[in-house]
Structures are given as C-alpha cells and as structure tokens.
Design brief:
This protein is of the alpha/beta class. 43% of the residues lie in helices and 18% in strands.
Length: 304
C-alpha cells in the first residue's frame, strides 16, 4: 500500500452483488479533496491504482472499489448469507465466484450506490479502460458530483469512426467467448491483448504475468468485455463526450494510432479537454508510468 495513506476496506451489498471497496486516507493532507478511482477489466482496484497513489499527495481521501465481476466483489448468492466475500482459494489470489453477464449500467449503479452509502457528493474522478467508460457515464449522470476527470485510455474511445469501433469491439467479444468456451482461457486472453495492445512488450515474463493476472476472474473479465461491446452498439457517444468537463486524458505512446486520433479530436473540440501522450507506455500505462500520471494529476490541482 502507498505508505503515506491509511487504508480502510468495506463491503456494500447492492442489487444482487456485494461490492468490495478501499478508502485510502492521507493523514498529512488537509485539503478535504476526494477522488474516486475506477480500474480496468480483469484487474482489481488496489493492484491498478496503488502504484499511482504512491505519488499522490493532494487528496485527503481516495475511494477505490473493485468493480462488478472483478477483484473481491462477488455475487451475493455466493456469500452463503454471511455478508462477507468468499475466502480466497488456499495459496491463491483467485476469488471463487460464478460470475454472470451484466451491462455497463449495472456497474454504474453499483458505484452510485457506494457513493450514496458513503456520503460522497463531490470529488475528482479517474477511470482506466473499462473504468474510464464507467467514469464517463457517472459524469453524465451526476455532472455536479465530479470536478476534474482523468481518463486513461477509456473504452469507447479507441477509434474516431464509430462504425469501425463497433466492428472491432465485436472481435473483443469473440475473444471473450473464447475465454469462456475453450478448456484453457489463455488463447482468448492473448487474442484480446493482441487487439488492444499489439505493440506491447512480449517478453515471456511480462506476458506470463499479464495473462496469469487476467485469469484470476476470467468469467468476470469476459463479461466486462461484452458489456463494453453492448454499450458501444447502443449508447450515444457524442452525447457522452459532450457531458464531460475538465478532462485530462492519457494514451500510451505505443498504443493504437486510432486511439490517439480520437483523443486529439476531443482536445480540439473542447476547451477544457487536455490530451497527454505518455512516452514508453502501451495500454498498461497505469502500471508502467504511475509517477508520470500522478505528476500530471498533481499539477492539474495545483493550477486551480
């Protein structure tokens, strides 16, 4: 854990799900500033954001939930009526949970319920990949609740051409189906990685660690990919983007050129949208350059 934060954990039952969350409190910061940080598909909140938290000092409290289908958030029917998450398998970080399909609105509802439960009504907002789309939908629903928004390669912004993106997202769902249907899910996971991050490091050590991490909740991971595909097919992206305010978006230098074009377009369209290209990164940018991302977040606050 980031050493200058104290971490409290909790669980919140929502509609058929139990959401696990962390609140990091900085006893040395008295700004009263809060931030909600949402992780990507297939990973949990702590693993995603703690490297960045090591370098953040301007927020008194940071809320990091595990989103539906991931981390230590599990379906309620698998809690055996105990009101706590299932124990991890012996010697493993894998959570036993029979995940089922969901839509992106379910995830947004979960996070809204958590904010209401905690009484968080004004904060900054960060979202990575799947969590980036969730963040944009939260901002659209509750425009006054979020001050600054930080988007790290958010889903729904991989391409300027919406029809092309819909077609590409169908291939992501094909990879998700492979994760569910094949005896070994690695083939589907690798196919997804080849699509979202074709220029990533493919060293044996890095690739093995990435695939192993995404296998932990492979059903939840696959359903998260399907939830984005469904959202891309039916949501109004223009309306979603127009609802965003005070945005800094990040894209890795090694990431898709089409993604960079989409983010550059938003900076050209909106006066309060800043696009940052992070050198030395692919889609795994919060794990690769957390200090760089944190520095930009810190400077955005100090410039207010």
């Amino acid at each position: 854990m980031a050493e200058h934060y104290q971490c409290q954990t909790g669980h919140l039952p929502t509609d058929g799900y139990q959401i696990f969350y962390r609140i990091y409190r900085n006893p040395h910061c008295h700004s009263g500033r809060r931030m909600l940080m949402l992780h990507g598909a297939g990973v949990d909140g702590g693993f995603t954001w703690e490297p960045t938290l090591h370098h953040l000092h301007s927020w008194s409290e940071v809320l990091v939930p595990d989103l539906r289908g991931m981390g230590r958030s599990v379906p309620l029917e698998h809690n055996q009526g105990l009101g706590v998450p299932l124990a991890h398998k012996q010697g493993s970080d894998v959570v036993e949970a029979q995940d089922s399909a969901f839509v992106i609105e379910d995830v947004v509802d979960d996070v809204q319920a958590l904010l209401d439960h905690l009484g968080w009504f004004e904060m900054d907002l960060a979202g990575y990949s799947f969590g980036g789309l969730t963040a944009m939908l939260l901002k659209q629903r509750r425009p006054s609740a979020f001050v600054n928004t930080y988007l790290l390669e958010p889903a729904f912004m991989e391409r300027v051409d919406l029809e092309e993106m819909r077609q590409v997202r169908e291939t992501y769902s094909q990879a998700a189906a492979m994760m569910r249907d094949l005896p070994e899910p690695e083939t589907g996971i690798t196919r997804f990685l080849d699509q979202i991050s074709p220029r990533r490091s493919k060293s044996q050590r890095v690739e093995h660690a990435t695939v192993h991490r995404l296998k932990n909740r492979v059903l939840g991971f696959s359903y998260a990919l399907d939830a984005v595909t469904d959202a891309v097919q039916r949501l109004d992206r223009d309306a979603l983007l127009e609802a965003q305010q005070r945005v800094i978006s990040f894209v890795g230098k090694k990431s898709l050129e089409t993604m960079k074009e989409c983010h550059q377009l938003q900076q050209d369209r909106f006066d309060d949208w800043q696009y940052v290209e992070v050198v030395g990164c692919d889609h795994s940018l919060p794990f690769q350059k957390p200090s760089r991302i944190a520095d930009i977040m810190e400077r955005s606050v100090s410039n207010l």
